[in-house]
Amino acid sequence: MSTTEDRPDFSTIADLFLSHGSMQSPAFLDGRLCAELALHDLTAEAWLEEVCHGLGIEQPRDRESGETLLAWRRQTLDALADAALNYEPLLPDDLFSLAERARGLQEWTLGFLEVIEDAGDKPRQSWSPALREAIEDLEALGGMETDLEDSTENENDLFALTEHTRMAAMLLYTEQHPGQPQVESGEPIQH
């Protein structure tokens, strides 16, 4: 399985978007990607079409760009399905201001929730109470204040919100794909 280190980072995808003339946030599309992989098993072709539509282009400008976009999907799926539970949302990193990172988290959340809302009520019927609560929390997060001052308290709060978002994404994926990832071996624990 691919690790999160193999996955393109936020800046790489943002630069790729800019090279296609788009200011679209990678965070928003990554939120959509995560929810679509969980709910619909999004194909590579459908993902490429969605990204191109989001960028306002017909196709990637070159083979390398297309491969990067497809690798983003594949590596996200690998991380969601990995027993290590190491999926990380594609968000601005520590090189960005706290406000930019908060906006990135909000954009990711809005993309994620957009797909969930488009799916309707049918998938929700089988969700656990924990997943329903996590999604409700994300709905509140979509309206959060993002103009944060740099402070240790705000940094810690943003970290906690990001972790909550990550766990909600993993919970959605695992509930929609029973047995994937296999986090329980079925073997008794030796003490």
Automatic annotation (TrEMBL):
Family named by the database record: Belongs to the UPF0149 family.
InterPro entries xref list: YgfB-like, YgfB-like_sf
Organism: Billgrantia zhangzhouensis
Signal peptide extent: none
Protein name: UPF0149 family protein
